[in-house]
Write a structure and sequence with these properties.
Blueprint (H helix, E strand, L loop, with lengths): L1 H26 L4 H11 L2 H8 L1 H11 L2 E2 L2 E2 L4 H22 L1
Antiparallel strand pairs: 1-2
Helix pairs in contact: 1-3, 1-4, 1-5, 3-5, 4-5
Length: 99
């Protein structure tokens, strides 16, 4: 059980980091490090984390849905709990960077 929650947590953190990277990659023309440094400097790092957390929503519902068309999988509630924990950690990071 704990391993499954940890798996969901790690996937949630990875999805959040991937969401931040994808947003920077597709919507800016600067280097990744430059954008992160400027976001911290300008006080918009919380907004970047919030945009990255959108992928957590997709991952959360992926773990809760039992099937896609003819493909059936078991509902993975413990992994969904881990993703929810990662999203709560992201919310605390947003609070830290915004206030």
């Amino acid at each position: 059980m704990k391993i499954r929650i940890l798996k969901g947590f790690l996937l949630g953190m990875l999805a959040n980091a991937a969401g931040i990277f994808l947003y920077i990659y597709f919507f800016t023309n600067q280097a990744f490090e430059y954008v992160i440094e400027n976001a911290i400097e300008m006080g918009i790092m919380g907004s970047l984390i919030g945009l990255g957390a959108i992928l957590n929503l997709i991952l959360f519902f992926f773990f809760l849905w039992s099937g896609f068309g003819r493909y059936r999988k078991p509902v993975q509630t413990y992994e969904a709990r881990g993703v929810l924990m990662a999203t709560i950690i992201a919310a605390f990071a947003i609070l830290y960077f915004e206030f």
